[in-house]
Specification:
48% helix, Rossmann fold, alpha/beta, seven-stranded mixed β-sheet
């Protein structure tokens, strides 16, 4: 990109655009096409309106330049077809004709600019830059609107988190009272009696509800991770062993030597690992192979969204279950979304969202599995803690 292009924001923007050029005369198409390639990001060409409409439908260029008089489908008829697909894409017509009926029809179609033949390079430049200026302005407005929407959503999320956190605290306090009273009432009933069994069921349900309340509190952000620099292996081993206990799932664990440590809240991070292992266990109907590979990984800026460049500990959880379908993939981290039966401990839809919340609290990321295929693969990335060299 030339210094002139860098200094001119409209010209720089033009140099990023995909442009469709439609011209039936081969010589003109070659010469003007050569000129356009020096100015735009990528040039599409078509020899008539029918071909041009098809290329627009397939490629959706940012700008269209077309002749009017062409076989099969003239430029203005093509422009009418384009307007059905896109009301806003700039359309520039080039023609040797200047009859009033062509001009009126061009206005009716919604043509943005008009360049007469023989084409003046200066005139074409002026038209292209005007279109680029408009598109750049629209893009800036769209980004600004998106920033405003994101800010509103962020404030709404913070408000909801505060509300959910307060409700979760009150919920847990009420459950605490219920659990204490159930505990005190249990010895007052005869073992084996119906009342004793009913109290036992009530205590089990209250304990499950307390666990659910703790998860809701975590998801709302109403918790604080007490971070300590610890090796990752003991946390991982204990969490996965607990999650797989009582199942026929086989664990295959690979730990790279000399793994860096991680700043972690051991209990919370163990819960995140446990949720991933439990998710795999249930996906495989309790019988299958869960493979967990742990390595060090260096990330460059932009390699993974939300993560800064640097060294990370990467944990890859792979199972031999059915995998995740394309339809379900966008929703797997949504709270309360579950493909499992409801009405029991299973199917609450909080496991993966909880895992994601905990890992993000540790300034890490959870990468979703690829769609379809055999088995699901979740990747966890956690910032590594540099080890000081011995003095």
């Amino acid at each position: 990109m030339s210094q002139e292009t860098l200094a001119d924001p409209d010209r720089a923007w033009l140099a990023t655009l995909t442009v469709l050029y439609v011209e039936d005369d081969a010589v003109t198409r070659k010469l003007v096409g050569r000129l356009l390639r020096r100015r735009v990001g990528y040039l599409l060409e078509a020899a008539d309106g029918a071909e041009g409409l098809e290329r627009f439908r397939e490629e959706r260029p940012a700008l269209v330049i077309t002749d009017i008089a062409m076989p099969k489908l003239d430029g203005l008829s093509m422009a009418e077809g384009i307007r059905v697909l896109d009301l806003h894409v700039p359309i520039v017509v080039t023609t040797a004709f200047e009859q009033v009926n062509y001009l009126q029809r061009a206005i009716d179609v919604g043509v943005d600019k008009y360049v007469t033949k023989p084409i003046s390079i200066d005139k074409l430049d002026t038209v292209l830059l005007a279109c680029a200026r408009r598109l750049r302005g629209e893009a800036m407005l769209a980004r600004e609107r998106q920033r405003e929407i994101d800010a509103v959503r962020s404030h709404e999320r913070e408000a909801l988190d505060m509300l959910a956190g307060g409700m979760a605290h009150d919920f847990n306090n009420l459950l605490q009272s219920l659990l204490v009273n159930v505990h005190l009432a249990s010895p007052l009933t005869a073992r084996g009696s119906e009342l004793h069994e009913l109290i036992g069921d009530a205590r089990a349900a209250a304990e499950q509800a307390a666990e659910l309340g703790a998860r809701l509190l975590t998801l709302s952000g109403g918790w604080f991770a007490a971070l300590h620099i610890e090796p990752i292996a003991p946390t991982l081993r204990a969490a996965v062993a607990t999650a797989l206990e009582g199942s026929e799932t086989t664990l295959h664990l690979e730990l790279e030597e000399d793994l860096p440590a991680v700043a972690q809240d051991v209990a919370l991070l163990a819960r995140a690992f446990g949720e991933l292992a439990l998710n795999a266990r249930e996906a495989m109907a309790h019988a299958g192979v869960l493979s967990v590979a742990v390595t060090a990984r260096d990330l460059a800026e932009g390699d993974v969204p939300r993560l800064a460049a640097g060294r990370y500990v990467q944990l890859t959880f792979s199972d031999t279950g059915p995998g995740v379908s394309v339809e379900l993939l966008p929703r797997i981290f949504d709270s309360y979304f579950s493909t499992k039966p409801r009405g029991s401990v299973r199917g609450r839809g909080l496991g993966l969202p909880l895992c994601l919340a905990i890992v993000r609290k540790h300034r890490g990321a959870v990468l979703p599995p690829p769609a379809a295929g055999s088995g699901a693969v979740f990747t966890v990335l956690l910032p590594a803690v540099p080890v000081a060299p011995p003095s």
